[in-house]
């Protein structure tokens, strides 16, 4: 029994020493040997615990959230949405594309070399009266447009969240 234990333990400690950090542990081989069995005990306890709770699926240890707490949370979330919306300045729908173009001249380098294509050009695509429109922007304009589009998507998400919180307040009959 002792011989069987000391073999793998010595190998374990030797590997650790190679890392150069476990020198202080060498005086306590017993704790190293006991580690796996302690883990096994925990696994067994956890299995028993799960088995026990499966017998009583309706047993809940969580506290019921009161209506006041839910109201306060919804109000706080709406206030947070207001603050975030107020911090947005640029806003735009649509999409932005960075593209390069061929000029059509067969003697131009762009005709044979993909790296020599003209541009980049920044094209903003947007819907106007249900029709897709395009507009070319400069690099500086495109940078602001990118921010505006990101803000638009953020604002849309915030509006959705605002709707959810409003419904929560309505369901809780908030004044
Ligand atoms: Zn060209």
Report on the biggest sheet.
3 strands, antiparallel
Cα shape: flat
Radius of gyration computed on alpha carbons: 33 Å
Give the beta-strand count: 3
- Total separate domains: 2
**What class do helices, strands and sheet pairing give?**
alpha+beta
Please give the order of strands in the largest beta sheet.
1-2-3
| Helix and strand sequence | HHHEEEH
**Rounded average pLDDT:** 81
Present as ligands are: zinc ion
Annotation field: number of helices: 4
How much of the polypeptide forms β-strand, as a percent range? 5-15%
The separation of the N and C termini measures 74 Å
pLDDT under 50 segments (min length 5)? 1-28
Percent of residues in helices: 55-70%
């Amino acid at each position: 029994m002792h011989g069987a234990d000391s073999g793998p333990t010595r190998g374990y400690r030797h590997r650790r020493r190679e890392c150069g950090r476990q020198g202080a542990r060498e005086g306590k081989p017993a704790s190293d040997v006991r580690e796996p069995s302690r883990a096994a005990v925990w696994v067994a306890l956890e299995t028993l615990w799960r088995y026990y709770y499966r017998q009583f699926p309706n047993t809940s240890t969580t506290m019921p959230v009161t209506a006041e707490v839910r109201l306060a949370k919804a109000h706080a979330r709406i206030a947070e949405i207001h603050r975030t919306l107020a911090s947005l300045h640029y806003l735009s729908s649509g999409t932005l594309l960075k593209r390069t173009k061929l000029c059509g001249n067969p003697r131009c380098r762009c005709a044979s070399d993909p790296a020599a294509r003209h541009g980049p050009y920044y094209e903003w695509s947007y819907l106007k009266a249900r029709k897709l429109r395009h507009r070319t922007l400069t690099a500086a304009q495109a940078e602001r447009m990118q921010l505006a589009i990101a803000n638009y998507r953020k604002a849309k998400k915030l509006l959705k969240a605002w709707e959810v919180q409003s419904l929560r307040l309505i369901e809780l009959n908030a004044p």
